[in-house]
Design goal:
Layout: E1 9-13, H1 19-27, E2 35-37, E3 40-44, H2 47-56, E4 62-71, H3 81-90, E5 103-110, H4 118-137, E6 142-143, E7 150-156, E8 160-166, H5 188-197, H6 200-203, E9 207-210, H7 217-226, H8 247-264, E10 271-276, H9 279-291, E11 301-305, E12 321-325, H10 336-353, E13 358-363, H11 366-370, E14 374-384, E15 387-396, H12 405-408, H13 421-440, E16 445-450, E17 458-463, E18 466-472, H14 480-498, E19 505-510, E20 528-533, E21 536-541, H15 555-564, E22 569-573, H16 579-586, E23 591-596, H17 599-611, E24 623-627, H18 630-636, E25 641-646, E26 651-652, E27 661-662, H19 663-676, E28 678-688, H20 697-702, E29 704-707, H21 709-712, E30 725-730
Helix pairs in contact: 2-8, 3-4, 5-7, 10-17, 13-14, 15-16
């Protein structure tokens, strides 16, 4: 039957978005005159053409041979699709296609406009095939929905129902090597499509890296391509039980494929790197590589448990590299913005480690892909099952060397601003004073002015190359119009002295806060930026809240923690956006634990961690975040910590917290509970911003207490030395 002209039309199905790439692939197999439809290509060709697609296509889902078309009569409005399928199936002699002793299954696909109970319609189509056998040969075949010898693919349409033999049997994306799975894996044929779009073979890279390898699909598909291994070489197909199967033809195609692979295995291969922060994924990758038949190549594949923050030195100079990866883009971090932080962090690492090399990165949201720093990027939209995904491909932009704003800032020449001369002079003098220190210590974020002059009651903070200007609310006795005019003069002077445009200056009014007002949104603009502090990249929000996400007066404390955290278990109470925890983690802490009542701030914390390549979503988390009242959390746990940081609010009456917290009244019980969790030779740092605060004598008698306020206040806050007070507390030696 293989020579019959009516069996010369073939359908090749694929995931939505793959039609063009699949067409290119099967054209390369010598097939011409291909018609494209959504999710399907149609061509007329020989059985050998169909077999070659089954053997060699890395992108196709199924190869179908249309056998019988049942034309519909539209003389009635109310259609019974299930009965039509039964009539269509029984009207053909299926014993011509396969033997009654074979097992079979039916896969039904209905066009969008067709309303049908798929389960019942599939059952009726099956009944039609069985009844056809009974009429023709008096015997009925058996059903096997899991591993049938014959699969019939039925397309229920508006004007006709088409019955096809599925030559592929199971979907062609199932290569047979994926024995071990991880969360949200990419299908094998989509991975191959991305590698084809990235021109893997033409690039001939020396290094292939997947930094979030999951179950190793990209690594294995790369190996299949580079060793010329046909994806259908070791799997079974749906044509084996078909009466028209040409066994000799298939065996010759298979022998040719085996020979090609054997020859290609002697060719040199790139160095592969497969990393994942999840040890289970690392194990799955190794086991799947072995299952794929590449155990002999394991010495060329560096498979390791690593976070993005823990990349080795790749020594890429003079080498061509390809980075291809499928980040964990799901909803585990809470929202689109959280997931975006992962892509920002990945992009920064790619720019630093692989400048001018090629990358292909999967995203679930186009906003995630948009943050990747690529030259002339291309975007491929595909469907991974029912989920749309975006693949961003392009050459990685080199990282720009960032210097503190004050490094390039010079005193500006500008006309005197009448009424603000003193303010302008003071601001400029402050900037000149801080310049040498900021450049020497790489300080990107600092306070430039803090109500130094009584008539200009503002705070001017520098965050990278942007300014955050807070106007302290004037006393009620001051005329509001006069205060507004003076503030506008200050803004004009700030722009003149700094040379920054209006777009780079963000303004807030800071009145004395009561209750929850300090946590309420000031705006809905939500312009968030990344700033640098030490080794850390930190997300700041200069518009939405009074607080930006980074308390500048604690810079020295955070850097101290970074220097002391290596190998230690770190606890951060009232952690806010957990920037101290982040510094500890980047400083090599064995673990970090951050506790805060606010889920908003803890989600922000996780974004900060992910932005820096640190993992926050494992069962055995190295970095943990707890939305809890610190008193309750301390009481309920028993773990010991080597390093603790506590920076509580002066006063709190959050609705999540029963009662109120007053730092002067409650610091004794807070510190006692925290010291119970401090290791014998550990260190606890305690600070607060209450200007009238006095450490209780009981604490000083019970523990080794040393005030270190002077060491934790940076040069930009020295003129306001009471910005906070800080203590170093240890257990007395036994």
């Amino acid at each position: 039957m293989s020579s019959s002209p009516r069996l010369s039309t073939y359908w090749v199905t694929c995931a939505d978005g793959l039609e063009t790439l699949l067409s290119e692939e099967i054209e390369a197999l010598g097939i011409q005159n291909i018609e494209r439809f959504p999710g399907r290509l149609v061509f007329k060709g020989t059985l050998e053409n169909a077999y070659r697609i089954c053997m060699w296509s890395r992108l196709a889902s199924r190869v179908l041979l249309p056998i019988h078309t049942y034309e519909l009569e539209h003389s009635h409005d109310a259609r019974d699709v299930a009965e039509e399928l039964y009539e269509g199936a029984i009207s053909f002699d299926w014993s011509l296609i396969f033997a009654p002793q074979s097992t079979f299954a039916i896969r039904l696909h209905a066009e969008r406009e067709i309303k049908v109970n798929t389960q019942f319609a599939t059952l009726r189509a099956k009944d039609g095939v069985v009844d056809s056998f009974m009429e023709a040969v008096g015997r009925r075949p058996s059903i096997d929905t899991k591993q049938p010898e014959i699969t019939l693919y039925v397309l229920a349409g508006k004007t006709a129902h088409t019955f096809c033999l599925d030559l592929s049997g199971d979907s062609l994306h199932k290569r047979g090597y994926r024995r071990f799975m991880t969360d949200a894996p990419i299908k094998e044929n989509l991975a191959a499509a991305i590698l084809q779009k990235a021109k893997l073979k033409e690039r001939n890279p020396d290094i292939i890296l997947d930094p979030m390898c999951g179950s190793g699909t990209f690594i294995i598909e790369s190996l299949l391509i580079l060793t010329d291994r046909a994806p259908g070489l070791v799997r079974r197909f749906g044509f084996n039980g078909w009466n028209g199967h040409d066994h000799d033809l298939w065996m010759s195609i298979k022998a040719e494929a085996a020979d090609r692979h054997q020859k290609a295995m002697s060719e040199p291969l790139p160095q592969f790197y497969a990393f994942d922060a999840d040890w289970e994924a690392v194990k799955a990758t190794k086991q799947n590589i072995i299952a794929a038949g590449f155990e002999s190549l394991l010495d060329q594949i560096q498979i390791e448990e690593r976070t993005l923050a823990d990349w080795p030195d790749f020594k890429t100079e003079g080498k061509k590299s390809l980075v291809v990866t499928n980040p964990p883009y799901g909803e585990r971090l809470g929202d689109k913005a959280s997931n975006k932080a992962l892509y920002l962090g990945l992009s920064a690492l790619l720019q630093k480690n692989f400048p001018k090399q090629y990358a292909a990165v999967i995203a679930s949201q186009i906003e995630q892909a948009d943050v990747l720093a690529l030259n002339d990027p291309q975007t491929l939209r595909l469907m991974n099952g029912k989920l749309p995904i975006y693949i961003r491909l392009g050459e990685i932009k080199p990282a720009t060397v960032s210097k503190p704003f004050l490094d390039t800032w010079q005193p500006q020449q500008f006309e005197a601003i009448e009424g603000a001369e003193d303010f302008a002079n003071r601001l400029q003098k402050n900037m000149q004073t801080f310049k040498k220190w900021a450049v020497k210590d790489n300080v990107y974020c600092l306070r430039l002015y803090d109500a130094d002059l009584p008539d200009f009651n503002v705070a001017v903070d520098l965050y990278g190359d942007r300014l955050h200007v807070q106007e302290y609310a004037p006393p009620k006795k001051i005329d509001p119009e006069k205060a507004k005019k003076r503030f506008n003069l200050a803004l004009a002077a700030i722009r003149a002295v700094t040379g920054l445009s209006r777009d780079a200056i963000f303004i807030k009014t800071r009145a004395r806060q009561e209750g929850k007002t300090q946590y309420m949104k000031q705006s809905t603009a939500s312009k968030r930026f990344i700033v640098q502090e030490g080794k850390a990249k930190i997300l700041v929000n200069l518009t939405d809240y009074l607080d930006t996400g980074l308390f500048l007066d604690h810079r020295q404390m955070r850097l101290r923690i970074a220097n002391e955290a290596k190998g230690k278990h770190f606890l951060n109470l009232y952690s806010y956006t957990s920037t101290a925890s982040l510094h500890a983690a980047l400083g090599g802490a064995a673990s970090t634990t951050s506790v805060d009542l606010s889920n908003t701030y803890l989600n922000w914390s996780k974004e900060n961690f992910v932005l820096n390549g640190l993992t926050v979503d494992h069962v055995d988390e190295q970095h943990q975040f707890f939305a809890s009242d610190c008193f309750e959390w301390l009481k309920e746990g028993h773990e010991q910590y080597d390093l603790i940081f506590i920076d509580p609010p002066t006063f709190s009456n959050s609705k999540k917290f029963y009662g109120t917290f007053d730092v002067q009244r409650d610091h004794i019980s807070l510190l006692k509970r925290a010291m119970n969790r401090l290791a014998t030779d550990g260190t606890l740092y305690f600070s607060n911003n209450y200007r009238g605060f006095e450490m209780d004598e009981e604490i000083e008698a019970t523990f080794d207490v040393e005030e270190i306020s002077n060491e934790t206040v940076g040069p930009d806050f020295k003129r306001n030395s009471k910005i906070h007070r800080a203590w170093k507390i240890k257990h007395f030696p036994v």
